[in-house]
Design a protein that fits this description.
Order of helices and strands: HHHHEHEHEHEHEHEHEHEHH
Distance between the termini: 36 Å
Helix content: 40-55%
CATH architecture of the largest domain: Alpha-Beta Barrel
Strand content: 5-15%
Number of domains: 2
Radius of gyration: 19 Å
CATH topology of the largest domain: TIM Barrel
Largest sheet: 8 strands, parallel, barrel
Number of strands: 8
Bound molecules: flavin-adenine dinucleotide
CATH class of the largest domain: Alpha Beta
Shape: globular
């Protein structure tokens, strides 16, 4: 992880900074760039507009590291509400949901969290809705991968995310391929101990390409989630040379980031999915997006000087 990125993540984690960002009107415009709104209705409106233009969507109700039972219950109810809203949408075939296991209560009671997740999968299966389990920090990697291995025996409408900045991820990729579960490959967004990660950004990028190629060759409809144009170009050329059809995988990008690239890939005939976060617990998600591209701080500086 770069020095600048680590500084932003560490500073943002300080409570007084969080209070300042949450209260200041200066940040509102920047937050709106990345977050679809506070409510499910707002998120569904954005999702349906994008779906009508041919995009696929994954809805993400923001929140993580839930420590209170009531909060996990509330998050699980919201996931169910999202699944019902998807089932009622004319674009239901294009919309799915992403969740975090800590929102289901993994830090409170793992067995209960698994039960919440299974109840959601049960409901989602009725409308053929896919449930993606986002990958969180390394405190949760093994628990997430092994939970998917267990739950996938009963529910095929689920899969997870693997991060190329982790040393262990090639092994996890093979585990998911053996299982047959869908994988979203990402570079990774958390501040992690050095001994668990590959040495630098170049190694993260190399492992990303390696994981993506293996998944495109042997995996189940992988999601290649990145805004890295160089990697996208390399994988497009490689897939064409290997005779891997455009329908065999999808590109995924975050709402508000590289809309131009999202549209051009869609126009070229690829499947593209936009990850749409919503809800009022936007702070950790927002700071990870700022840290990924310190140039995003420029939007804030501009807002400060706007009359
Ligand atoms: C659909 C999706 C789901 C994700 N789910 C997870 C998850 O479950 N767990 C997890 O750890 N991480 C997740 N991530 C985040 C991921 O790990 C990276 O942190 C993020 O995608 C940035 O990496 P990159 O691949 O775009 O490449 P980078 O090398 O970081 O960036 C490549 C280029 O993309 C553009 N870019 C990247 N980020 C931004 C930004 N924030 N603002 C503006 N431009 C930007 C810039 O032009 C940059 O030069 C997800 C990402 C996506 C797209």
């Amino acid at each position: 992880m770069s020095f600048g990125r680590a500084i932003i993540l560490k500073t943002a984690a300080l409570k007084p900074i969080e209070r300042l960002v949450r209260r200041s009107f200066l940040f509102r415009g920047v937050v709106k760039r990345f977050i679809a709104g506070d409510t499910l209705a707002e998120a569904m409106q954005v999702a349906e507009e994008l779906a009508a233009r041919g995009m696929n969507i994954s809805l993400d109700y923001l929140g993580e590291n839930t420590t209170k039972r009531e909060e996990a219950e509330q998050a699980t109810s919201m996931f169910m509400e999202i699944v019902r809203a998807i089932a009622a949408s004319p674009h239901r075939d294009k919309i799915n949901i992403s969740i975090k296991l800590t929102q289901c209560g993994l830090d409170i009671d793992p067995a209960w969290a698994e039960d919440n997740y299974r109840r959601l999968l049960w409901l989602a299966a009725e409308s053929n809705t896919f449930v993606r389990v986002d990958m969180e920090s390394t405190d949760y990697t093994e628990r997430t991968v092994s939970l998917i291995e267990r739950v996938f025996q009963d529910f095929k409408n689920t899969g997870t995310v693997l991060q190329s900045y982790l040393k262990r991820s090639m092994d996890d990729t093979r585990r998911m391929i053996t299982l047959g579960a869908r994988v979203r490959v990402v570079k990774g967004a958390y501040l992690e101990p050095e001994q668990l990660t590959v040495p630098d950004k170049a190694a993260t990028d190399r492992q990303y390409v390696e994981m993506a190629k293996l998944l495109m060759q042997e995996g189940n409809y992988p999601a290649i989630a990145t805004h890295d144009e160089k990697i996208i170009l390399e994988l497009k050329q490689w897939a064409a040379e290997q005779g891997i059809g455009k329908e065999k995988f999808e590109w995924q990008m975050l709402y508000g980031i590289r809309r131009d690239l999202q549209s051009s890939l869609h126009e070229e005939g690829y499947n593209v999915r936009v990850y749409i976060p919503f809800g009022d617990s936007w702070y950790p998600y927002f700071t990870r997006r700022l840290a990924e591209r310190p140039a995003n701080m420029w939007f804030i500086v501009k807002a400060m000087f706007r009359k």
